[in-house]
User: Fold this.
Amino acid sequence: MEENQSYTAKDFATDQDVRWCPGCGDYSILKQVQTVMPDLGLPREDIVFISGIGCSSRFPYYMNTYGMHSIHGRATSVATGLKAARPELSVWIVTGDGDGLSIGGNHLIHLLRRNLDVNILLFNNEIYGLTKGQYSPTSPEGQVTKSSPMGAIDHPFNPLALAMGSDASFIARTADRDPLHQREMLKRSHQHKGASFLEIYQNCNVFNDGAFEMMTDKKGKPFHTLYLEHGKPLVFANGEKGIILDGLQPKVVEIGTDYSESDLWIHDEHDGMKAYILTRMFDNPADGLPRPFGVIYSADRPTYEDLMEGQIAAAQEIKGEGDLDELIAGRNTWVVE
Assistant:
């Protein structure tokens, strides 16, 4: 970046026609990402967006940065290679619940456990959109789709619980219809040193419209969403309700005579045990628990590329820089008569 170079959101937009269905939640996500990019203070040539296959995977075409539209489920593999070779780059992986959790699921969990310093944006619309409406790894049981006409019998993945089980060092959730919160989570993802996993609820208005309506509708949102803030009590329903821990079981209580905010569960981003409980909240809607949004877990852990560079430096100190031609030739030779 040239000295004193400054960008606007328009500098990150390309001349390509954005080809998503009218009303798709992807438009909002694209807008918020383009809005946040200038605030990161990075030159465009140091930013890379990598995607797999799916509606979300058109993303690199619309970002005026470097990028790659790769193959199904393998954006994580491409990003791993790039980050290992060019650790100074800001690498963003854009994927969906099908691309990232089905064919790409194995690659995703290994990237998370390795903790490369990349940002994963998983657009979750609980459906396959690009291939026209089959059920996905996050579709709820019983959902009727083109590939499950009698209702899906697969038990769905919980993306945040999966990330937690993979020892991800940063886990968060936001929604396409909450632009301010979305921008905040994008910035937090970027600021984290390590693999950040941001699940974004994204409405597919053609094949799964209203999947998250209870959490985005103005009337229902206060009662079904819980916005997390580090060091703050878990309060929702316009301050009328809160959450306590009864052993390891979260429980909704009324704030008033019997309970005050000082009695409630205080959110700690660095508490892994409580973070896992948060990822499982709302598994059973009958419990009346809201769904958490925000940073659920954040931990400091060495990144893969830093550890790898350390090993390379240690090997060079012991053996010298080495010679590639000599390495390829090998030490064993023989003569064919």
User: Anything to note?
Assistant: The chain is about 30% helix and 20% strand. Residues 304-319 form the longest helix (16 residues). The radius of gyration is 22 Å. The chain has a mean pLDDT of 95.
